[in-house]
Amino acid sequence: MSMVNGSNSGTGVANMQGKVVLITGATRGIGRKVVHGIAPFGATMIVVGRDQSRIDEVISEAKAIDGCGPISGEVCNLLEQDEIRNLANRIKSQHSQLDVLVNNAGAIFSKKIKTSAGFERTWALNHNAYFLLTSLLKDQLISSPSARVISTASEAHRPGKMRWDDLQYDKRRSMGGWSTYCQSKLANILFTKELARKLDGTDVTANCIHPGFVNTGFSRNNGFFGRLLMALTWPFQRRDSKGAETIVWLAASEAARKHNGDYLYNCKPGKLSKAAKSDEDAAKLWSLSEQMTNTGDLW
Fold first, then answer.
1. Catalytic residue IDs
2. Are 64 and 39 in contact (CB under 8 A)?
3. pTM above threshold 0.85
C-alpha cells in the first residue's frame, strides 16, 4: 500500500475536497509526510507547528503536489494549555466542521521541567494536548459526517505503566525520560479506547497508531546522547513516509472506519499490552484528564 504517494487503488478512498483536516506536529517527520500524503486528495488542511518558517516550508511543499486543496498554518506551543485553547478558538471561528483531527505532535524530554500549568513536559505534550484539543473541538467533529480522530501512539506503550499516584514522576526516576514517555504512549491508547466509547452513537471514529521506529528528529532535543542514540539506531529505522501511511489511510479510507477504537500498525490492528486493554483504567484516565485540563463541562 502506498497511500502517502496517493496510490489508493482498492482502498475505498473518497475524494476529500471540502473536508477539513487538522494535523499537529505537521512540520517534521511523520506529520510532514502526513501532509504530503493527504495533499493529493484535495482536503482543506490546517498544519500546526511551533515555528512559522517551518510551517511555511511544509505549506510550500504541499502546494507543489498535484490535487492539493486549501492549506493554512497555525503556530502553537502544545505544551501550554492556554495556547491550545487559543488555537481551538481560532479553528472554531474559521471552520464549522472538522472532518479529521490528527493528534501527532509528541516528544520525549530527558530533563524534568514542568509547564506553566505544572505538568511534566512529556505528559503535557503527548497526552494532555491530545485530550484537550480533542475535547475543545468535539462539537466541530460531531457536526461533520464521518469524522475521525487519529492519535500517534507507539509500541513503547508495552513497558508503560500508569503511575496513578505519581503521573508527573515527582517521586520516581524517569530513566532519562523513557518511563514517562512509555506511560504517555499507554495513555494515548487508553484515551482512544474511552474516546471511542464516549462518541458511540455519533458518526465520529477514534483510532491510534504505531508508526514504527521512524527516522525523524525525535529525541534530538535531548542533547548529545539523544542524537547519538538516533544515529546508532539509524540502520533499524524506517522511513518517515512509511510511518505516515497508516495515518493517511485512516484519514482517507472508508474501509478504515470498521476499526473504530483500535490501535493499528501498518493499517492493521496491532497487539496491545495487558495494561492497554483495561476499560477501567481508560475510564479512570479520562476522569483525571478532565481535571488536568478543566474540560469536565465539555463531555
1. 181
2. no
3. yes
